Amino acid sequence: MSVASRRSLDDPGLHDEFLSLVGEGDEYGAVELVTELLDGGATPQRIMIDLIGGAQTRVGELWAANEWSVAREHAATAISERALAALAARTNVRPSRGRVTIACVDGEWHALPTRILAEMLRLDGWRVDFLGANVPGPHLVTHLHQTGPDVVALSCMIATRLPRAHAAITACRAAGVPVIAGGRGFGPGGRYAQHLGADAWAAGAEEAVLRLARNWPPHNSDPQLSAFLGDEEYTYVVRNRPQLIDSAMRQLTERYPAMRDYNQRQLDSTAEDMAHIVDFLAAALYVSETQIFTDFVAWTDGVLQARGVPPVALRVGLEAVQAQLRDYPAATAILTAGTRLVNR
Q1: Residue at a domain's end among 199, 227, 255
Q2: What is the CATH number of the domain that holds 312?
Q3: Which intervals of the chain form a coiled coil (predicted)?
Q4: Do 102 and 205 fall into the same domain?
Q5: Is the peptide bond before 217 cis (omega within 30 degrees of 0)?
Q6: Strand segments (E) across 8-76
Q7: Which DSSP letter does residue 50 get?
Q8: Whole-number Å distance between alpha carbons of 181 and 193
Q9: According to the model, what pLDDT value does residue 1 have?
Q10: 107 with 218, same domain?
Q11: Alpha-carbon distance 60 to 65, whole Å?
Q12: Residue 281, CB-side half-sphere exposure with 13 Å CA sphere
């Protein structure tokens, strides 16, 4: 056995080394490293969670800090997926439990965490149907009728997808299949998951494996299922989304003179940020939760400052949206809370 094959997950510098490999697009090196760790006695579960999952968290942080580009972040994610696939190819487990369908909600593209969950459950003896990213609700329901799983694991990483997550959860339960939810989009501690009708929530892959192994199906499950949560303010914001964005962009150009010198790429990026403001506002209105919006504003403020955009630009953008919603008290209160964060 070589020295390399005896390396462990506790080795100093190992995590930085793997991050460097995925960041440089070195698929061979990344696969070789996880294979050596497996040969050296590390469990595949710990390699998935600690090494691959840990590196993916750092990749997101480096992008947010403007140290990595979107292209580099995507390339690194692809290498992590290849390393995960290499681990899966080396670990065969005969199914001994039930059948689970794993999917990201419609519009959700962060598939690596769900792929890690899929492999963790497979190692725990489940028969896994991994549907991947961005699964439209009707297609998910068709799959359930075709395969009859015991449970659906549904991931939502971004709160703007909560209305679609609600629709998917409602459809799954109507088909007679319980749902375990996961992902940051369901809020701190999964606070929105049960409100949207999920039978359970798990903070990560390890917790999901334990929940499904020890207490599934849940006894006396009483999800707070609601057929529709959004009120008239939510409906107005969603229906008028294009106009809200266009008008806010015009106001922003007038009130933030630096925008007049923006190139097309910068203008497109600003329009995308404005769309996020409207979408997160709609999500906050949908579940009546201001924190969804204020968390988004705090995160966006940090990202924009890392890219050299002063806080005044975000403040003016928020005010431009708020000016169009003066007759909507809930939306106005949410936007005011967000603006206060930027003004600190």
Answers
A1: 227
A2: 1.10.490.20
A3: none
A4: yes
A5: yes
A6: none
A7: I
A8: 6
A9: 40
A10: yes
A11: 9
A12: 35
Q: What beta strand segments (E) does 171-315 contain?
A: 179-182, 200-202
- Based on the fold, state whether residues 255 and 165 are members of the same structural domain: no
**b (16+ CB within 10 A) / e for 198-231:** bbbbbeebbebbebbeeebeeeeeebebeeebbe
State the residue for tokens 């487990």: 93
> Quick one: pLDDT at residue 247?
94
Place of tokens 């922003």: 252
Cα–Cα distance between 100 and 107 in angstroms, integer? 21
Mean pLDDT by 10 residues, the chain (344 residues): 61 92 96 94 94 95 92 95 94 91 95 96 96 94 96 96 94 93 93 90 94 75 56 94 94 88 88 94 94 95 87 91 95 96 78
Tokens of 318: 């928020």
> Percent helix, strand and coil across the chain, each rounded to 5?
65, 5, 30
Chain mean position to CA 90 = 28
pLDDT of residue 126: 96
Domain boundary among 60, 91, 122: 91
The reported pTM is: 0.89
Residue type, 263: N
| Amino acid letter, residue 123 | L
Phi-psi region of 50 (alpha: psi -120 to 50; beta: other; left: phi over 0): alpha
Range of the domain at 277: 232-343
Buried residues in 104-140 as b, exposed as e (16+ CB within 10 A): bbbbbebbbbbbbbbbbbbbbebbbbbbebbbebeeb
* Number of separate domains in the chain: 3
Give the CATH number, domain containing residue 84. Answer: 1.10.1240.10
